[in-house]
Design brief:
Length: about 180
């Protein structure tokens, strides 16, 4: 079965938001082979028990009162349509950062989340991705940036979070640490 498509989170397996799993979904009561392992904002705790289909069609939101991306984290400095905020918070897999997450926006729309990246991933992605992260730090080329760049790690802080504009394809990023 093909995974549902998430407009703002196009590769949720690659980012680690979804995993192959035998777990049964608490919403549809089916074990569909994949489970969501990202953050769930709800009264109850729901850990690794919601399938991606129940996120995509809104049923997990409606049945559990859950959201998956904190509304306050979305496009902090942009004004986005309510429909975009709703799709993100209620029907899109989220990700967990070290600090309050930010879901970046560009061209008056929320961006696609590409994933968490560290030094190795950025080297593989190339100069535009590296520049996006560097710009988010405010550091100029030099030893301070070199030290920070070398320390960036996907699974240990400091970690960078890479996004791509759905309209102009620009890469954007932010970074945080413990
Ligand atoms: Zn389900
Ligand atoms: Zn753009």
């Amino acid at each position: 079965m093909n995974l549902p498509t998430f407009t703002y989170h196009p590769a949720p397996l690659a980012t680690g938001a979804l995993q192959l799993s035998p777990n049964t979904c608490i919403v549809c009561q089916q074990a569909r082979g994949y489970i969501y392992v990202g953050p769930v904002y709800a009264v109850e705790e729901y850990e690794a028990c919601i399938c991606p289909w129940c996120i995509a069609d809104g049923s997990a939101h409606h049945r559990l009162g859950a959201t998956f991306i904190d509304e306050d984290s979305i496009g902090p400095d942009a004004s986005l349509d309510d429909a975009v905020i709703t799709e993100l918070s209620q029907r899109t897999p989220g990700f967990a950062g070290w600090q309050q997450e930010q879901w970046l926006a560009h061209c008056d729309d929320a961006c696609e989340f590409i994933g968490k990246v560290g030094h190795a991933e950025l080297l593989a992605l190339g100069s535009e991705a590296i520049r996006a992260v560097q710009a988010s730090t405010g550091l100029q080329d030099g030893p301070r940036w070199d030290v920070f760049f070398a320390a960036l790690h996907k699974d240990r802080g400091p970690t960078a979070y890479l996004f791509k504009c759905r309209h102009c394809s620009a890469l954007d990023a932010y970074q945080d640490t413990h």
